[in-house]
Amino acid sequence: MSSHLSRRSPWLLYLGTIQVFLSLAFAQFPWAAAIPRTGWTVTADSFQPGNEAANAIDGNSSTFWHTAYSPTIAPLPHYIQLDMKKSYIVNGVSYQPRQDGGSNGNIGQHTVTLSNDGTTWSSPVQFGAWLNDKTTKSTFFSNTTARYVRITAQTEAQGANNPWSSIAELNVYSPNVNLDASTFTPPPTSQGRWESTVVLPIVAAAGALSAQGNVVFWSAYRPDRFDSGTGQTLTALWTPSSQTVTQRTVTETHHDMFCPGISLDANGRIIVTGGNDSKNTSAYNPASAGWASAGQMVIARGYQSSVTVGDGRVFTIGGSWSGGQGGKNGEIYSSATDKWTSLPGAVVAPMLTADAQGVYRGDNHAWLFAYKANSVFQAGPSKRMNWYNVSGPGSYTAAGTRAADGDASK
Ligand SMILES: *[C@@H]1O[C@H](CO)[C@@H](O)[C@H](O)[C@H]1NC(C)=O
Ligand SMILES: *[C@@H]1O[C@H](CO)[C@@H](O)[C@H](O)[C@H]1NC(C)=O
Ligand SMILES: *[C@@H]1O[C@H](CO)[C@@H](O)[C@H](O)[C@H]1NC(C)=O
Ligand SMILES: *[C@@H]1O[C@H](CO)[C@@H](O)[C@H](O)[C@H]1NC(C)=O
Ligand SMILES: CC(=O)N[C@H]1CO[C@H](CO)[C@@H](O)[C@@H]1O
Question: Where in the numbering of this chain does the F5/8 type C domain appear (predicted)?
Answer without folding.
Answer: 17-175
